Amino acid sequence: MGAVGMIALWAVLFLAGHFILSADAVRGAIVGATGEQPFRGIYSLVALGTFIPLVVAFGHHKHAGPMLWYLRGVAPLRWLVWLLMLAALIMWVASLITPNPVALGAPDNPTPRGMLKLTRHPGFVAFAIFGFAHMLMNGWVGDVIFFGTFPALGIFGGLHQDRRKLRSMGERYRKFVAETSFMPGAALLSGRQRCDPREDFPLLAVVIGTALTIVLVAIHPWAFGGHPLG
Question: Which of 34, 47, 159, 189: CA 20 to 30 A from 222?
Fold first, then answer.
């Protein structure tokens, strides 16, 4: 199997592990047999057991396969990519510090706040932006497959979670979906949400996300090789 095939294999296994284990029938059967916490452990083991080999395969075969596009010489685009990475890191941090309003024990009528007014899936959106940003700067087939794994997980993972929670939570999650949007900013532009900067501005996420971006810019050449995002 060639380098591109190896990357593609582990990318497919990584995505398949997520979506198969989170399918209602599979998840229900495993939870019924082992319990919720053991299921989470199995899920994490499968995720790590496929993601680590994916990263290793890509690390050994970076820039494998034909080149589909080369945009590294476009300076404005490189700045755009770093802005996308800044947005991705801010959203990722926000997803960790913003309580999930539809989690177990949350109020019956949850009200979106903070980053959830921008998108109800900030973590998934962060993965998608991260992948798309890196795909712009890495146009080799192997790189596109590797970094394309992140938008695939982000987009289809978010849609899958919406469907699963609509089935399991019913009207409570349906109301939350109606008030928010998966696409960043859609709920705000449509008037379904209004942002109050005094209450909704994710200051902590912005500070931490900005700091992480600065660190990544500094360490990228020696930690990941080549120029930033290259």
Answer: 47
Residue 226: is it exposed, middle or buried by C-beta count within 10 angstroms (0-12/13-18/19+)? Answer: middle
For 95, the token pair is: 């997803």
What DSSP string describes 98-113? Answer: SPPTTSTT--SS----
User: 3-class SS at 140?
Assistant: strand
Nearest alpha carbon to residue 15 among 49, 55, 47, 45: 47
Residue 33 CA to residue 123 CA, distance in Å, equals: 29
In sequence order, what are the beta bridge partners of 140? 67
**Burial grade of 154 (CB within 10 A; 0-12, 13-18, 19 or more):** buried
Q: At which residue do the structure tokens 């095939």 appear?
A: 5
What b/e sequence results for 165-186 when a residue is b if at least 16 CB atoms lie within 10 Å of its CB, and e otherwise?
Answer: beeeeeebbeebeebbbbebee
The per-residue pLDDT for range 102-160, each reduced to its tens digit, is: 655 555 566 788 888 999 999 999 999 999 999 999 999 999 999 999 999 999 999 99
